[in-house]
Amino acid sequence: MTPSARRWVARLYCALVFGFLMLPVAVVVLASFSTTAYLTIPPQGVTLRWYGRVLESADYLSAIGTSLLLASVATVCALVIGTATSYALVRRALPGKAVVSAVVMSPLIFPGVVIGVALLQFYAALGLAGSFAGLVLAHVVITVPYVVRTTLASLSGLDAQLEDAACTLGADRLTAFWKVTLPLMRPGIVAGGLFAFITSFDNVPVSIFLTGVGTTTLPVKIFTAIEFGVDPTVAAVSSLLILTTALALVLAERWVGFHRFT
Amino acid sequence: MPEPGRHSPGVHRRWDLAGLGLLSPLLLLLLFAFLLPIATLIPTSLRPYIAGTGIGEGLTLEHYVKALTDGFYLEIILRTVVLGLVVTLLTLVVGYPLAYVLARSTSRWRHWLMLLVVFPLLLNLVVRTFGWIALLARRGLVNQWLMGLGLTEEPVRLMFNFTGLLIGLTHIFLPFMVLVLVAVIQNIPREVEDAARTLGAGFWSVFMRVTLPLSVPGILSGSILVFVLTISALVTPRLLGGPTYKVMSTLIYEQFLQLLNWPAGSAMAVVMTLIVLALILLGTRLARRWEAQA
Q1: CATH assignment of A58-261, given 3.40.190.10, 3.40.630.10, 1.10.1040.10, 1.10.3720.10?
Q2: What b/e string do you get for A27-56 counting C-beta neighbours within 10 Å, with b at 16 or more?
Q3: By CB count within 10 A, which of A126, A154, A254, B91 is most buried?
Q4: ipTM confidence
């Protein structure tokens, strides 16, 4: 095979794999505009009715509200705790750093369903079952590793002497951190915040065991809706999620070069 | 004013305390909202289950014995592990060429292509699985196409079986594999490949004898990641497999939320955790051995 033929084979292959990756996404968007409950290609008719149905549904709106609030609170907590952790891991002489890092990162690979049932049982004993606070705690646990990972990446590329220089010039430790180190960590913090927000907003395997009446999150609501039977409002609300995710990703790339953190 | 001689160690210790102070919120959170709750699954898994009331008194190993000897449970565990292996192999075979092209690409579109890999990963899992339902259902698009092309008379069963889970899970975890592989292939210095080429090796020979062996650590960590994520996946197996075609995580889900048999569910969760931990340990060992050899 000549190099140029090989290049074309490579391009074709990539197009095929990307096609496979995007296929279900495209199908969901198409289904959301379809007049029939079961999607056909070509669609039998185009309608915005299902979007209207989502925006009229008190259930969906309250689930969206819960998810947004939960993801925001969890992200802010994860950012504060995660940045503090990275800072301590990089800049402080502490024993057992490797063990600490491993424990901090372990929720990333730990089965979500096990975390979910463990917390269900734990919260039931503590009277936290179905509470918003319980959901927040669980979501901070599963989102904080993302923040630690991205802020570690940002921080380890920084010269520790910058902060010392600020101190020499009269700033105290906190001011030096706030005015020098924190702004330089911005890309890692933004990327970590985005990962945390999306991870929290998307989570089902942990949330499904912890939500109660009035604290149902959007993905859990969609999940139960699908279990009851496919209906086109699911496609409409899913398409809204697809659009928001795509926008967030493009903005994050423009703002901090998101691809560097993947 | 402290004496000059004692100043320095005092400061040193105080800074270590500051470091510990910065770490403590996360360590406390992980202790009370992660490690301790998971550890509490062990005592629950040793309790007898009494229909109607739930958790009984006394200690018993019956849930573990059942999980490891009863045909029903064994089949589910075996199915989960086989599914994990096949999905890992598929994502590796499909993902490696893509990762290679992306890692070696000099195109100005490369960043956006990488983001196209990340996008499905960030997209809600339920949404992606819903797309597969629309495709794989009895009256779904794939069956419409197959019947439209005259390839089949009756709709083919693509959901509530191994095929459906395999397609859905491969789709979900392919981006993870690609991202891990891209990172590793990128770190292989091009000079090494160039040197082999200068010495007369062709493209495939360079690939098989230089690039592939050097990317083994990535293959290993990507495979472990995908395997662990596959055997613990809940949403996709539940939605594409339904209540009848069970895997370990959907069984745990049922036992906790529908049958309210927490002891048996806890036992299954402990078994799953042990499988995951064993694999991660094995993976780390293998990676270390490989690097020591290289």
Answers
A1: 1.10.3720.10
A2: bbbbbbbbeeebbeeeeeeeeeebbeebee
A3: B91
A4: 0.89
